[in-house]
Amino acid sequence: MNRKTLFVLAVLALALVAGWYFTSQVGLPRVPAQAEPWLPGVQVAQVKAIEVQRGDQPLVRLERREQGWVVPAKADYPADQGVVNRLLKALAEARKVEPRTANPELYGRLGLADKGEAEQRAVRLTLEQGEAPLQLLIGKPGQQEGQLVRRADEAQSWLVSQRIELPASELEWLDRRVTAIPFAEVRELDLRHAGGERLTLARDKAEEANLQVRDLPKGKRLAFDGAANGFGQFFADLRFADAAPLAQLGFEGKPALEFSLTTFAGKTLKGRFYGKADQHWLLLEQGSGLSASEVPGRSDWAYRVEPYQYQSLARKLTDLLAKD
Fold this sequence. Notes:
Structural class: alpha+beta
Radius of gyration: 28 Å
Helix content: 10-25%
Order of helices and strands: HEEEEHEEEEEHEEEEHEEEEEEH
């Protein structure tokens, strides 16, 4: 191989490396040192309401109250404060990375069109702050970071530096936590089925790793040491599938399942499940003594849980025993 051939190969190699580097950087939003804020007038603390219109779905409205953000259409049920705060923070910190099209005929490619196919249409986001609401159009995410956006009163679209996350439905805007009682704090759990069967699980000390079955029949044993722990873990991060004010629902007859949970601090949570049209609804009793962070759910609301959630708590003693 002569010197000329080696030189040509070296040049080609450098070209390939340069090409790889260039293509790997395409789509990376590099924010200029003096980049302008996209929404210089947004003051997070002054935003009083948020509306989200996604395609043909019902409008979602959130309002700021003294106790935090709520969803008025859900009888002022608390919104997920973290989701709302992250959204407002992203909007306030979003900076212009680079301009995109100002041609309305090309908006659909960026997911910023007012009409057309679902993937072409923007999510319309309205912030109520002061006298004039600010209307924003949120399009597709950037190739690697950032978001494609446009103000409704401007033709120019932009790639901005922040991802703007918007829940897909009203349900996902809600604070869906019902209970958040750490398993380590559960001392006793008593379960009573409509048919009369009762199952009590307990441990004497917090240091004990596993719940045990009280009054285990002679000659019977659990399938494994932690077979009963799932009952207590049920309450560690319980989230609802749907919720409604208790006054809007009617439950008749005996509950399918009742429970009473006691912590090592001596606090008690009681509740019951009712079956309604192949669904299972949880009602919490008032006065548990537990904090709002441990029991975010409310006694004046009913909470629908998924079938697998209900079944995990509705198991009976025979489901726990070893198959001899």
